[in-house]
């Protein structure tokens, strides 16, 4: 099975992430930030992988370090769980509507880190999370997972709907990209 566990301790956070890529979407998430928990539960469900995350962070300061360090640890676990990436589909994409909002995720598990994140939020906070911290989470994940990720909220009015659509699209695109579809590495170079 494609599983991995990462523990990351800093002066700002203590994070544990376990991922099972061949799971069924089960999750147990406790980040200390309720809205982030909600989004990560959706990510696991729509990605069809099992996810266990526990974080004790300096949220009395704010949630930035928690969001970023969870992105780092989750990205590392994702990358390690995939191993040499032999047989994976590699590419994934998905559009998700959430009422009036529409989000698109397009990604390449390329071993090249890059993030394009286009989302405009009207509110400074969504639930108990700073709107700016979503980009920090996705940047940290893309860097550590070594993926190219284009994540965009194409339109919408309600910020909750916009970011929820983005997380669901991201999960579905990941699910497509990690599917085993052949016996070889999906690259003309022979390696990712």
From TrEMBL:
Q: Which GO terms describe its molecular function?
A: imidazoleglycerol-phosphate dehydratase activity
Q: Which GO terms describe its biological process?
A: L-histidine biosynthetic process
Q: Where in the cell is it found?
A: Cytoplasm
Q: Name one GO cellular component term.
A: cytoplasm
Q: Write out the transmembrane intervals.
A: none
InterPro entries for this protein:
IGPD_sf (IPR038494), ImidazoleglycerolP_deHydtase (IPR000807), ImidazoleglycerP_deHydtase_CS (IPR020565), Ribosomal_Su5_D2-typ_SF (IPR020568)
Pathway(s) this gene product operates in, as recorded in its UniProt entry: Amino-acid biosynthesis; L-histidine biosynthesis; L-histidine from 5-phospho-alpha-D-ribose 1-diphosphate: step 6/9
Q: Which HAMAP family match?
A: HisB (MF_00076)
PANTHER family xrefs: IMIDAZOLEGLYCEROL-PHOSPHATE DEHYDRATASE, IMIDAZOLEGLYCEROL-PHOSPHATE DEHYDRATASE HIS7
Q: What is the protein named?
A: Imidazoleglycerol-phosphate dehydratase
Q: Which source organism?
A: Lutispora thermophila DSM 19022
Q: What gene is this protein translated from?
A: hisB
